[in-house]
Design goal:
CATH architecture of one domain: 2-Layer Sandwich
Shape: elongated
CATH class of one domain: Alpha Beta
CATH topology of one domain: Alpha-Beta Plaits
Helix content: 40-55%
Largest sheet: 4 strands, antiparallel
Number of strands: 4
Order of helices and strands: EEHEEHHHH
Strand content: 15-25%
Length: 157
Amino acid sequence: MEKKHPEKSVVEKISLKKYSPETARYAAYALTSEAYAFLRPAGAGALSVELRPKPGAAPAGLAARFRAALREEALREVLFEENKGLREFMLLKALSAPEPAPAPSAALTPEQEKELDALIAQVEREIKEESAPGKDPLGITRRWEDKHGVKTRSKKK
């Protein structure tokens, strides 16, 4: 049932036996970019939804878009209820995930230990070679005191 008001608003009467108030509210909310929505009781078991077009929005087809949004919201409500058990199961499964298995111990075989010792010895040799005197042509590793000498400050009186 559609009525037109002088302000070009559209009024739809919704049966609460067919649609819940939440469904009507969500359907009206879907159209709030185009119109202001006002929900009011309309007698026993009914709800009145008034849609006033916003400035610059055309009221043409507003009632049809509201009815389509109402049907879509009713379908969403049905699907939401039907999938409630599945959502609860998935949430419970996600929250009660088993503890991860402990990482295997890092025990090395005798061959791996020998190889590791050889690598460590090689790295230590390379470090010694790199830090040997004469390998610093720019004098970067020299201390400031060695480079410039120690200067003492005289006290002013």
